[in-house]
Amino acid sequence: MMRVIVSAGGTGGHIYPALAIINKIKEHNKDAEFLYIGTTTRMEKDIIPSHNIDYVGLDTYGIQRKLSLNNIKAVFKFLSAIKKSKKIIKDFKPDIVIGCGGYVMAPVIYAAKKCGCKTLVHEQNSVLGLSNKIMLKYTDTLCTSFKSMKVDNVNVVYTGNPQGDSVHNLVPYSKRKFGLTDDKKLVLIVMGSLGSKTVNEVLQKSLTKFDPSYEVLIVTGKDYYEDYKKIKRTSNVFIEPFIDNLNRLFSKTDLLVSRAGATTISELIGTNTPTIFIPSPYVTENHQYKNAMDLVNNGAGRIIEEKNLTTESLIKEINELINNEEELKEIKSNLKKLEVFDAGEKIYNEIEKLVK
Question: Structure pTM?
Answer without folding.
Answer: 0.88
